[in-house]
Automatic annotation (TrEMBL):
GO molecular-function terms, A-Z: peptidase activity
Keyword annotations: Hydrolase, Protease, Viral release from host cell
The protein's name: HK97 family phage prohead protease
InterPro entries linked to this entry: Peptidase_S78_dom (IPR054613), Prohead_protease (IPR006433)
Domain Prohead serine protease: 15-149
Annotated GO biological process: proteolysis
Species name: Pararhizobium mangrovi
Pfam family, any one: Peptidase_S78
Length: 166
């Protein structure tokens, strides 16, 4: 079985295409109730293909670092902006805030059911995609600073407006 879990991520991208983000938050389940243990990502082979929208025919770069820190799986890589027009398009989408999510594609090797979902103990990580609508609410691109800062300001304004309305 090939499970693809969409995870909203915090990430950012530089003009050179360098990108990083949190691909999985360990403390909470995704939108379908699945949780993944940190050790499940320990043997992730690098580099990991970077796809757009889980389309195996749309590679846009590669993830060269995968670290488990701050309660999640963090990825760092590079969009191939010097070589692929599509990678430049994806960089523009990330920088604008239109694409903010990360999603991991994997094969489940070992899982156990739990109330509301399952706990995945072992998996084979196949790819990590940039996506528009992620499954996990804590997975985001963290390094497209201008877009991330603008989104944070807009979020603060929306929270303030809601506070004054209510």
């Amino acid at each position: 079985m090939n499970d693809q879990l969409l995870i909203e991520c915090k990430f950012a991208v530089s003009d050179a295409g360098e990108i990083e983000g949190k691909a999985w938050e360990f403390a909470s389940a995704d939108r379908i109730g699945d949780m993944i243990e940190p050790k499940a990502f320990e043997n992730a082979p690098l580099p990991i293909p970077m796809l757009f929208g889980h389309d195996h025919n749309d590679p846009v770069g590669s993830w060269t670092e995968a670290t488990i820190k701050e309660g999640g799986l963090h990825l760092k890589g590079k969009l191939l902006v010097d070589d692929l027009p599509r990678a430049r398009e994806v960089r523009a989408l990330v920088k604008s805030g239109a694409v903010r999510g990360l999603s991991v594609g994997f094969i489940t090797r070992k899982a156990a059911p739990r109330k509301g979902g399952r706990t995945i103990h072992s998996l084979e990580l196949l790819e990590a995609s940039l996506v528009t609508i992620p499954m996990h609410p804590a997975a985001r691109v963290t390094s497209a600073k201008s877009a991330i800062q603008a989104l944070a300001i807009a979020d603060a304004i929306n929270r303030a407006a809601a506070h004054f309305k209510g």
